[in-house]
Amino acid sequence: MDLSENAKIKAGGQGIGARVPRKEDARHLAGKGNFVGDMAMPGLCEVAFLRSPLAHARIQAVHVPSEIAEMVILRQDMAGAKDIVAASTLPTYQESAQPPLASGKVRFVGEPVALAFAPTRAQAEDLVERVEVDYDELPVYANVWSALDAQEHLVHESWHDNRFVTLKADKDFDTLAAQAEVKVTRKIELSRQCMVPMEGKAVLAYWDFQVDQLVVVSATQVPHLIRTGLAQFLDLPEERVRVISPDVGGAFGYKCVLQQEELCIAWLAMTYRRPFRYLEDRREHLIAGANSRQHHYEVTAYADRRGRLLALDAVITIDGGAYSVWPFTVGLEPGQAVGNLPGPYDFRGYRCETRCVVTNKPGFVPYRGVARTGVCFALELLMDALAREVGREPSQVRLENLVKPEQMPYVNVANKHMDGGDYPASLRRAMEMIGFEAVRERQRRGEPDGRLIGIGTATYTEQSAHGTSVFAAWGTAVIPGYDQAMIRLTPDGGLEIRVGVHSHGQGMETSFAQIANEIIGVPIERVRLLHGDTGQTPYSSGTYASRSLVMSGGAVAIACKQLLPRLRHIAGHLMGEDPAVVALADGHAHAGQKSVPLADIGNAWYVNPQRLPADVDRAGLEVSTGYKPKVDTGAFTYASHAAVVAVDTETGVVEILDYVVVEDCGVIVNPMIVEGQTIGGVAQGIGTALYEEMQYDEQGQPLASTLADYMLPGATEVPAIRIDHFETPSPHTEFGAKGMGEGGAIAPPAVLFNAVNDALRPLGAPELLMTPLTPRRLLTALAEARNTATPEAAR
User: Fold this and answer.
1) pTM higher than the cut 0.85
2) Residue 9 scores a pLDDT above 60
3) What pLDDT sits at residue 790?
4) Which stretches does DSSP call E strand in 17-73?
5) Contacts (Cβ under 8 Å, ≥6 apart) of 608
6) How deeply is 404 buried, as exposed, middle or buried, from its count of CB atoms within 10 A (0-12, 13-18, 19+)?
7) How many percent of the chain have pLDDT more than 70?
8) How far from 239 is each of 226, 228, 242, 661, CA to CA, in Å?
9) Beta strands in 386-468 (DSSP E)
10) Among 778, 755, 658, CA closest to 384
């Protein structure tokens, strides 16, 4: 029986496509979540870190008062702990060795130099304040340009320059660029950001004497990977390490790498055989937490007179910070940038050089969207500039350049295998929802309050659930393969699901239950998901890259399908019917007018086996299996966003009047979860566009250390976001699903900048091309326009 047949008889509407409220919300709304910070253990010591006040300096000496020496740890004390080294097979890649505590020199403000432990965090902080460090300052590389120019005193002395890696692509560029009638160049910048999850880094570790095992409880997205990393860098057999990830208060990529603090806390528990915990505070997160997003683009479009793209040329410079993270390496960002810059457009000439530069800042970590926010920002601003150059509406130029549905499946100029969809239709629908013609008429009339109205659009693709072949090409230290799932029918008809991915807000406890309900018919309230514990779950490389629903959800679907014939066989025997006519729904097996509850099937196997058929499958009522799509180059989600803004030319304030999203993530398991993810992503994208920036001075000092300095959008800054769905099933995945967790965050910077530039165009203001679009930057552009003798007239 296939899914469509099962859907005809299922009751309750809990399967794929149902708007089922999230199961996990009940405990969180009642304050019953279980986070690392909620845990208590006898003898638990809290840990504080002494962090470097300098961005680049040699450590000459560390002075620890003798009376506190037993509670203070330096790098030389950490016998058995190795530096974190993330290997890569990318050509030109240079490895960095990140010590758990600074050794020999410090490379960014906030790098941990020493740690202290005590019964309370306050006492531990008092201890580290008594430690004194003698530094010999070195030249500071606070930006990529000074780092590229450096000839000596490199960030990593053994390197030949300050570049992590340089990647290049070239496909028919010279031939097609030579045919162009129009050439448009822009320099575009995406500023540095922090991730700012509600819960920062959090790790507790202890020694379990019963099983002689190190247990690390960490707020991580990737418990199985962290287990592998801790075993590697603590020189422990992996079976002697167990990683548990409890409830996680947001992550966005920040928690998908091995953190220095995780290694330190694990080493303490291994060494002292007692429990230790570290909780990152907000100041530590902003100063020393990994940064992301900082890209510099010089991009050129080559096109015909109508704006039809022929070729694209780009030099992308990425500020990678001081260290390459394990396991994905800093090479992931430039790899994604060079591969995803062409986006959803149909052109055949491409040249790109992407260089990732080491600087004296915290190391670069993947952040929701992983390079795609930057490349979408650069390409979509360039598309608007191209449209202005050829004198056409930007939306019309986009529509002519987007890959058409009849071209699908489509392999683009960067060898991305787009699996299906109607990109132009999504843009047309977004323009319809935003009321494009009405907005243009409103612009012509003018606003009573004098503000300027602008409209912006952008379309992007999100390569989701990409697997072995893609990550192998990026040369990461760990390559994802098969995700596994184990399912078990309980004696009373419930279902247990075990997966190796872990949720940090995606609603997996609900969506995975819906997949099981669709196939086996178990009511979702009777489905229990166990995840986040390497001691109790099958292996997965974890939750990142919009992969969990496709990969682990696919494994759950396959496992349920494998269990289904066993259930039907026993049910048919109990009802005296041919198993071929048995269907499962609403917690029962049905055959015509007869039915038996799943509880009877479970009871027959576990409790009353005398009721079983003689030829019962002795594999029982549990299944463990692995899954990855046969084509693992990714399932391509796409979306078009549109926004209307009002710009106050006196204050520089931008108000978002309307924002719409038309997205296609394949077959939707739970529209409520998809929409929640989209809204959250758009809110983060608004932060990137208008508010968030981690600035550094010329000495590498971070200029924001609290949320009074580092601006985030709040409820009043995020409009009511309207969403429409297309559903183009992926031909490569179970039930046609595609990932979409990163999607909402990709387009907003491009959409909002295009809208503001559209609003300011009648004034002849220079284009705004650097995030965030602050009032100061906007007013500066307006002042420049006023100082121009003959402002450029709007075309």
Assistant:
1) yes
2) no
3) 52
4) 45-51, 57-63, 72-73
5) none
6) middle
7) 98
8) 13, 10, 7, 46
9) 410-411, 417-418, 452-464
10) 755
